[in-house]
Amino acid sequence: MNRKTWMTLVGLVVVLSMLLSACAQPTPAPAPATSAPAKAPEPTKAPEPTKAPEPTKAPEPTKAPEPTKAPEPTKAPAGPARGGTMTAAFDQGPGGFPERFDAWNATAGYYWFDMYLAKLVTYSDTSLTKFTGDLAESWEISPDGKVYTFKLRKGLKWHDGTPFTADDVKFTLDTVAIPGVSTFAAKLSTVKGYQDVKDGKATSLAGVEVVDTYTVKITHDNANAGFLDGLAFIYIMPKAAMKDIPVKEIANNPWWSTKVVGLGPFKWSKYEKGQYVELVRFDDYWRGAPLLDKLVNRYFPEAGTAVLALQKGEIDFTYVTADEMLKLKSDPKITIIPGPSWVNLSIYFNKSLPVFQDKRVRQAFMYAIDRETIRKALWKETAQVVNCNYRLEAYVPKDINPYPYDPKKAKELLDAAKFDYSKEYQLLTYYGDQLTKDILAAVQQNLADVGIKITPRYVDTPTFVSEFYNKEPKWTLIYAGSGNGPDPDVHRNIFTTAATWPAGNNAHFYSNPEVDKAFAAGLAEMDPAKRPALYQTVCRLLNEDLPWAFLWESIRYGATTGRIGNFVYTPSPGGGRYYSAVETWYVKK
Asked: Which residues contact 425 (CB under 8 A, 6 or more apart)?
């Protein structure tokens, strides 16, 4: 199909989209918005933290050796009454992890997990630029970046009444490091003794030391500038409640959905498969007992049904797609909450197949897809084109290949690689919304124009996970999203050899020694001013080698009825990883 015919096709899609959205205009791409919570008391001031970067610059790590103080417990705001239930579709959309409760293997769903579980540290707010303590009251980092010492909060109790101690932290980190237990193991790869645990020579990390009941010291073989970001993924779990579960049975064990206990503001109450999970207020929560009595997370297997429930007032919040946002934004009863997704949308290649081992074939995909026209016509400019795994300008060198739309160049590369034009390839995805289907139809046509035949296959998230995370990949091509921020080290768990599944999220089995070396250099650099240049090397290498065909990063949206006061949300990577002040949410009268 020539470009004129292609533009005619895009025009027809746009007309149909405009009719369906009643000629609504797209919402501009603003910064994340949240409902304004009642102002909590000022926290106890800590030593001055590292200055937060501008939105397009690399976040700066907490500097050693000054300890970072966590805020004082949040007090109930004046005015709102205690009581009531919030019902929401917390796991709807790509930021959710519906009905998979193993938080040590979560690829998303952090927003919901944060309602009843807890970590040592998290991001302080939706800007994702500063850290705050959760279970850790404060921490110190040695000048060489190798030793992290955490002071834990005293007097905390698990939901079952068991005291929280440093033993729980050591148990968690030791267990997460064991191969097959958690996809977050690679985030501990610099901790002393990690390799011995990985090789089966030890069952605990030599570098994790319980100093006393409320102090944990973690020693690394090398400096680790991204360690706090890594810990913001790892939920601390109770040793007493989990110690008798066989290690090989922890992942996806029924315990996570039947007997789970945490340290979050709400505690597990009830799970009705395929319908909902109910949490109830935890009165002993360290920041103060939540105002709400209950949180209910409803499941909606059919796309779009959560939006209907929101419009009917049956739920208070849900994730919405860009096309759903266009339909809802004129509804006075609905409030749209936009924010950067921090998610890189790409096509993954199964490089165990000979056809995708040739870099020229992977590069042909980039030249063949008219990413800019799709961004304007279908995304309606609520997304931006990306050319490597990073979006932030600080990590993207100006001299990388922008891969402009060039079907002639794509065809030349395919011919040079002796591509077999007779074969057809399946494109697996868990995105089932209409916008994605329109986008992939355009991608399918772009690729067909140069002789590449693909057929999209839409599946639910559990099916996708079972086929993607597999020692013998059951897929050919994948269209998926991957969180790319806010710390650039986050992709070490995706693109490095050491993070090959099940040790990490590198389930596409990519291996490039140069990329491994570049990530290691960035991780070991404790000077925040020097880190961006090192991660530009990562970007440059991946832009050339293309383990994925990098496409777009979009704006994402949440929607609420406004019935819940003090509500805090932004569509950050994985749907959470920041302090949402859920204990202050309340039902408006």
From this structure: 452, 453, 454, 455, 476, 477
Q: Which residue has the higher pLDDT, 449 or 381?
A: 449
Two structure tokens written together for 133: 């303590």
Assess if residue 581 is contained within a domain: yes
| Inter-residue contact 570 to 370 (CB < 8 Å) | no
* Tokens of residue 563, six digits: 């019935």
Mean pLDDT of 299-315: 92
* Spatial distance between the Cα atoms of 145 and 223, rounded to a whole number of angstroms: 4
Judgement on whether residues 409 and 467 belong to the same structural domain of the protein:
yes
Residue 155: which region, alpha, beta or left (left: phi > 0; alpha: psi -120 to 50)? Answer: left
Supply the range of the domain harboring residue 98. Answer: 85-265+566-587
Which pLDDT tens digit goes with each residue over 130-154?
999 999 999 999 999 999 999 999 9
Nearest of 550, 584, 552 to residue 565 by alpha carbon:
584
Contact by Cβ (8 Å): 504, 182: no
Q: Looking at this protein, which amino acid is placed at residue 166? A: A
| pLDDT tens digit sequence for 566-580 | 999 988 776 788 999
Decide if 280 contacts 297 (C-beta within 8 A).
no
Determine if the pTM surpasses 0.85: no
Q: Residues with Cβ < 8 Å from 63, sequence gap 6 or more?
A: 49, 50, 141
Q: What is the dihedral angle through the alpha carbons of 471, 477, 481, 487, rounded to the nearest 10 degrees?
A: 60
User: Residue 492 sits in a domain of what CATH number?
Assistant: 3.10.105.10
